[in-house]
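User: I'm writing a tutorial on reading structure tokens. Could you give me a worked example: one chain, its sequence, then its tokens, then a sentence or two explaining what the tokens reveal?
Assistant: Sure. Here is the example chain.
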Amino acid sequence: MLKFKRLFPNKCSIIGMIHAGALPGTPLYGGSIESIVDNACIETEILIKHQVDGIIVENMHDVPYVQSKHFGPEIVATITKVCERVRTIVPTSIPCGIQILAGGNREAVAVAKVTNFNFIRSEGFVFSHIADEGIMDADAGLLLRYRKAIDAENVLIFTDIKKKHSSHTITSDVSLVETAHAAEFFCSDGVILTGTATGKPANIKELQDLKHNCNLPVIVGSGVTCDNVTEYFMADALIIGSHFKNNGNWMECVSPERVKKFMQIVKAARGWCNFSYGDFSFSG
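And here are its predicted structure tokens:
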């Protein structure tokens, strides 16, 4: 928890998502790497202007996704260029992270290492599951050994558990809390709770269970909006993607008005927590 709080000292930190445009070689690639980089930078500037607590870059437009063993070198090369440019815009006091779909966890650690990013979002850390892309094997042991081997232990690894867009029938006898305990035992730096799909709200009861029974930071990774954000304020951080976009659609551009409104609600809620709890303030 201490490492997390060094990066995210605020109560319920807000991590804004940058959905990088479709990368070279993927079906939706538009033919311009510079356009991908420039758009990512424009959206980063909007998020920073409205004082989000962190940034995460993701290649969500690379649909349909393939597992990391099928990545071409152009994927890692291009996302590295995006992250390098994003990092030049973001103040060093604001942490940056990366997720490379699908299951590109080692690649993400490598990119984070060379671009001075602070964390990655990892799929399939503990307990294999079946995703859109096929069977995703658990990789905690290999991933942490790789992080050690390249001297990247300052890159934190936040891990999805019972993640969205996936079937967990094989591990249905392993509860969410047990999965979180396994992630903790395997040295995760934080767990991510999601709904069933992109933009779908996470279950409040599950969030409460994790906060009461897990010693790791708990991050909510989908479905948070202006209308429900205060319900998720017990989380240590929230990753906001779809709701920051025009019409709440992840495929559209970041909306300055939506980001501004959301962050105003968050700041007001933080102030209410400070006032209500006095010496037991939730602020950083």
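What the tokens reveal: Residues 2-276 form a domain with the TIM Barrel fold (CATH 3.20.20.70). The chain has one domain: 2-276.
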